[in-house]
Amino acid sequence: MPRKRLRSIPSDSTKSGYALNDASTADAVRCERAFLRTLNGSCRTPIGALAVCHGSEILLRGLSIDADGRNPRRVTVRGARTVPAALGEEAGRMVLARVGMASGHV
After folding, report:
1. Nearest Cα to Cα of residue 46 among 32, 66, 22
2. pTM for this structure?
3. How far is CA 33 from CA 9, 10, 15, 85, in A?
């Protein structure tokens, strides 16, 4: 089957998209996703993350709960906005250390 070619996006549309992008939100989302990815999160995994940017810093609050609703593990970390994914991964590793499962399955 022949591959379809994607048409290029007009530069005006690209510029409009960049105008809608909010750097604080993008950094917070990168941090949250890194936390979830470190814990192998899915829509069936009882974990959550909330990152909020404050100036040049990000505050991340994360939570992991056993599938039966027991043993909540909370983590709060603060770090530089310049490395949002690294901060999320660090928080995820902290939760894994509490569980004692370096394999990444919470």
Report:
1. 66
2. 0.76
3. 27, 30, 25, 8
